[in-house]
């Protein structure tokens, strides 16, 4: 009897540390071009094997998630080795392939990819093969992965590792493109909307923002997130105001870490997260914005991933002491950053706990009773 596909994927993913340990002990493979070739061969072989043996062709995303789960185990192996829990697995690759993987940001990114993404991949595959909807799980991963890749690739290019990019860094290109492709597929599929009576939809949509205290509080949190994003964006752009100088030197010196990741993240918030936050506030104010059910999940995935990496890296021992959050400013800085990650997550819970306000508006006079008579 064939085991469930998610179990097969899990077991195949556990081979990742063994593959890394083997390569670590074969000197002939420890060169930049062979490393890139090995990465491409492993990924290509995994997709082909899973497609031929386990995955029906219509489920085109499934082999992709299966191979990404293998990559997640590689990331977790890197995080554990960089933090000293294991050794002899990734030293060759970090030294010759991607030196930036030893940074605090990359370590926190690897933990997220190796735990959160890995669990998401297994859950998505489980839902696929049981005919259940995996749209929300997929969008959560897509938002997280796109944000992760934008910060990682841009940070490496503009940061202190930009002058030391090796061929193995090119393996990030497919990992950058795949979540965009998956997002296009997921957003193009119709969402299964909950069954809600017309009377309830009308009643919810007739309420003003002031009569919806939860939505009002969330709107205020999102406005605060916008203000915080603008402020930190100006800080990394070397705003000459005294408050910017005080903040970057006394509260979040990690923003000027030469690795480049925090600077890119703040600019991503300023130019991409800021307009999305404005649209989400609009969706809380104007009834019938059914796109909120998808975009809140996508945005929450991006914000939780980036904030996890940012908070963790600003406290991690691999970050030079001068760039870590000062001990006496720990609580205000961490609280603000946690709230920035929590606001989109709370918005997701609100939208899906009571989605009536975001359903398409019911034509005037069309109540549930009238529908029954027709």
UniProtKB/TrEMBL annotation:
Question: Its family?
Answer: Belongs to the TM6SF family.
At the highest ranks, the source species' classification is: Eukaryota, Metazoa, Chordata, Craniata, Vertebrata
Query: Where does this one sit in the cell?
Result: Endomembrane system
This protein's UniProt keywords: Membrane, Repeat, Transmembrane, Transmembrane helix
Q: Which GO terms describe its biological process?
A: lipid homeostasis; regulation of lipid metabolic process
Primary residence: membrane
Return the InterPro entries for the record.
EXPERA, TM6SF1-like, TM_Tm6sf1/2
Asked if the keyword Membrane belongs to this entry, the reply reads yes
- Ranges for domain EXPERA come to 60-183, 214-348
Bilayer-crossing residues are 32-50, 57-80, 100-125, 137-157, 169-187, 216-237, 264-284, 291-310, 330-349
Residue ranges that the Swiss-Prot or TrEMBL entry lists as coiled coil? none
Its placement in the membrane is given as: Multi-pass membrane protein
- Classify the source by domain of life: Eukaryota
The terms describing its cellular component in GO are: endoplasmic reticulum membrane; endoplasmic reticulum-Golgi intermediate compartment membrane
**Protein name per the record:** Transmembrane 6 superfamily member 2
């Amino acid at each position: 009897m064939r085991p469930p596909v998610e179990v097969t994927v899990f077991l195949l993913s556990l081979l990742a540390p063994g593959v890394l340990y083997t390569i670590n002990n074969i000197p002939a493979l420890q060169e930049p071009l062979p490393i890139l070739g090995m990465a491409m061969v492993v990924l290509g072989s995994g997709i082909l094997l899973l497609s031929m043996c386990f995955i029906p062709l219509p489920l085109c995303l499934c082999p992709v998630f299966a191979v990404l789960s293998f990559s997640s185990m590689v990331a977790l192996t890197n995080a554990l080795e960089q933090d000293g829990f294991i050794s002899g697995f990734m030293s060759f690759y970090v030294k010759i392939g991607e030196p930036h993987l030893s940074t605090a940001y990359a370590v926190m990114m690897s933990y997220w990819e190796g735990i959160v993404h890995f669990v998401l991949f297994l859950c998505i595959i489980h839902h696929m093969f049981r005919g259940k909807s995996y749209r929300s799980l997929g969008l959560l991963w897509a938002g997280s992965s796109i944000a992760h890749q934008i910060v990682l690739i841009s940070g490496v290019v503009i940061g202190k590792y930009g002058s030391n990019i090796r061929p193995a860094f090119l393996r990030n290109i497919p990992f950058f493109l795949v979540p965009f492709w998956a997002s296009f597929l997921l957003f193009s599929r119709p969402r299964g909307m909950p069954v809600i009576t017309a009377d309830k939809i009308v009643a919810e949509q007739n309420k003003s923002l002031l009569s919806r205290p939860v939505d009002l509080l969330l709107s205020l949190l999102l406005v605060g997130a916008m203000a915080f994003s603008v402020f930190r964006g100006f800080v990394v752009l070397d705003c000459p105001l005294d408050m910017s100088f005080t903040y970057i030197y006394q509260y979040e010196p990690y923003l000027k870490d030469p690795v480049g990741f925090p600077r890119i993240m703040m600019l991503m918030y300023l130019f991409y997260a800021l307009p999305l936050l404005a649209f989400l506030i609009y969706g809380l104010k104007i009834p019938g914005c059914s796109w909120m059910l998808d975009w809140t999940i996508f945005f929450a995935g991006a914000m939780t991933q980036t904030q996890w990496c940012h908070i963790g890296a600003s406290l991690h021992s691999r970050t030079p002491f001068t760039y870590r959050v000062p001990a006496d400013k720990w609580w205000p800085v961490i609280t603000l950053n946690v709230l920035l990650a929590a606001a989109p997550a709370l918005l997701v819970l609100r939208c899906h706990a009571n989605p009536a306000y975001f359903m398409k508006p019911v034509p005037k006079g069309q109540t549930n009773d009238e529908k029954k008579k027709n």
